[in-house]
Design a protein that fits this description.
There is one protein chain. The chain is mostly helical. Among the domains are: 262-347, no CATH class; 348-423; 430-540, 3-Layer(aba) Sandwich (Trna Endonuclease, Chain: A, domain 1). It is 57% helix and 4% strand. It contains 27 helices and four strands. The protein has a four-stranded mixed beta sheet, with helices on both faces. α26 (502-513) links the parallel β3 and β4 (518-522). α1 packs across α21, α17 (314-327) packs parallel to α20 (358-370) and α20 (358-370) packs across α23 (397-413). The longest helix has 18 residues, at 212-229. The radius of gyration is 28 Å and the shape is elongated. The termini are far apart. The model is unreliable at 17-32 (pLDDT under 50).
Length: 541
């Protein structure tokens, strides 16, 4: 006998076959010539006059590998070995040369190291993760190594990009290199857009801490050359990524970005990728120009509908969803939600896909839920096939928080959706200590202190919705009635507005579903202590 669980899974998979649209995990082309940042950067190093001194000339005569059969590799000059390493040989011989180069790293010139690392990262070789000599280069580059007087600023930028292939593992090495570049601050100011883009992307990939002066250089270059940069999404995206990561929300830059992107001349040229990254940056800044944000959201949504989301990278769709849901704004065309829902169903069509990409899956499901595009079919499939414990990953706190909040939303708004889960009544015990939020919310503190002066049975800070980390106040009046006080300030609203952001809107929605008695206090209209106390007395009378 077939179980209900298996029947649902079979029906879900069959529905996907019938609606298959061949979605792709590849990204849209960022440049007419290059499909990836990596290809563009490697070609930049090889062709730019400031960088291409390391490039070896291809031998005019093909060397027969049998000529090396009886020659000990240690007797061959390093440049000759690197030449063979770069211009092709059989895999077994590649590994032999790699082992020999490992023994020579300490004695190599900087240009020789550049040849070695560039060769390992080239598309035809793809040796970076396997090459022992490449790994040795990373180990070699400590703080003292970056102080060597023969190392130029341009070589430093190039080396840092190469080691950033190891991402977070390369963080210490990249930070050593950034220290050197801070001593070459004038060089950075005069660098080309391409050079700064490479450096910015390197810091982002490696998760390295970036000095404020360097962030200001990135921001100033965006301000100064924005009209040119948005013609080349690779440069624009590379420069804006570390600013978002560092939460560098310069108001002059924000104004310049929105003004330039609003310009009709540039609307057709800046493209979906640049627009998504701009939207993500503005969402992170809680940006408050709702008219511009809505135009940008709808512009991207219209492109998605027109392209039918073909050749879109899943991360770009995820970033769009997160930004829109965080801002609390909904695309005007309801087909945006439908096409993204279909996109998700096609990508997460098996248990294995759901588990291997659970971080993206959970984040996208939560964003869709916040926008009221609830992906019911996909979530039924996911939770019928996979246990909640199996969706969690080690040391992935953000994933756990999003999963717990998604489960909370479902248990309140669709209680029969996830049969295996019931909202734990003591879930609020895992919420952060309230004092950790108070430093950023002085008006909330003021409201709390004012309430304490009134004749109330109970006044305490409170997280009214499990796993939704927006602090409010719970009071119990003299009749025993429980009332929740929500404060609208710059933490819960778009910047300098009274418009609740996406998380605050979700909190209101869930409180309404639970029939909570909620009172809202707006900072912008009640900052005066006397008027605040009078207003609270009226509301609670």
């Amino acid at each position: 006998m077939i179980s209900k669980k298996n029947i649902f899974s079979m029906m879900y998979c069959q529905s996907l076959i019938l609606t298959n649209k061949n979605y792709s995990l590849q990204t849209l082309n960022l440049n007419k010539s290059y499909s990836t940042f990596h290809k563009w950067i490697l070609d930049f190093f090889k062709n730019h006059p400031k960088y291409n001194e390391f490039v070896l000339k291809k031998p005019t005569l093909e060397v027969n590998m049998s000529d090396y059969k009886y020659v000990q590799l240690k007797t061959i000059p390093t440049d000759e070995l690197l030449n063979k390493f770069s211009f092709g040989c059989s895999k077994p011989f590649h590994y032999k040369i790699d082992q020999e180069l490992l023994n020579r790293i300490n004695d190599m010139s900087i240009n020789q190291i550049l040849v070695l690392m560039d060769t390992c990262l080239s598309e035809k070789n793809k040796l970076s993760t396997k090459s022992v000599s490449f790994k040795k280069c990373l180990d070699l580059m400590d703080e003292l190594w970056f102080r060597r007087p023969d190392l130029t600023a341009s070589q430093t930028i190039q080396l840092l990009y190469y080691v950033s292939i190891y991402k977070k593992k390369a963080k210490p090495t990249v930070e050593f290199g950034l220290q050197k570049l801070m001593n070459e601050i004038n060089y950075l100011k005069q660098s080309s857009d391409e050079e700064l883009s490479v450096l910015a992307l390197t810091t982002f990939k490696s998760n390295a801490k970036v000095y404020d002066k360097m962030l200001r250089i990135f921001a100033y270059r965006l301000e100064k050359n924005l009209s040119k940069l948005i013609q080349n999404p690779m440069h624009f995206v590379s420069l804006i990524k570390p600013l978002k990561k560092a939460k560098y929300h310069d108001q002059i830059l924000l104004t310049k970005l929105t003004t330039t992107f609003s310009n009709n001349i540039n609307k057709a040229s800046h493209g979906v990728i640049s627009s998504v990254h701009l939207l993500t940056y503005l969402a992170d800044a809680n940006y408050g120009d709702v008219i511009f944000l809505q135009q940008l959201i709808d512009s991207i949504g219209n492109c998605m509908i027109k392209d039918n989301l073909k050749n879109y990278r899943i991360k770009d769709v995820s970033n769009y969803l997160f930004s829109v849901s965080y801002l609390g704004l909904t695309p005007k065309d309801p087909n945006v939600g439908k096409i993204i829902n279909d996109f998700m169903n096609q990508l997460f069509y098996t248990k294995e896909k759901c588990q291997s990409q659970s971080k993206l899956l959970i984040g996208m499901c939560l964003s869709m839920w916040m926008l009221d595009y609830k992906p019911i079919q996909l979530m039924k499939f996911m939770f019928s096939e996979i246990s909640i414990a199996a969706l969690r990953m080690p040391n992935a706190h953000k994933l756990h928080n999003r999963l717990d909040l998604l489960l909370t939303c479902a248990s309140i708004e669709q209680p029969n959706l996830i049969i295996q889960y019931q909202l734990v009544k003591n879930a609020l015990n895992v919420m952060p200590e309230s004092f950790k939020h108070l430093g950023e919310r002085p008006f909330l503190v003021k409201v709390f202190q004012t309430l304490k002066k009134l004749n109330l049975s109970k006044v305490e800070y409170n997280f009214s919705i499990p796993y939704l980390k927006i602090l409010g106040i719970q009071i119990i009046n003299n009749t025993g009635e429980v009332i929740y006080i929500e404060v609208l300030d710059n933490s819960t609203c778009l910047y300098n507005t009274e418009i609740p952001n996406g998380m605050m809107k979700l909190k209101y929605r869930l409180e309404s579903k639970l029939n909570y008695n909620v009172i809202t206090i707006k900072e912008s209209s009640l900052n005066n202590s006397t008027s605040l106390e009078s207003h609270l007395k009226v509301l609670l009378s």
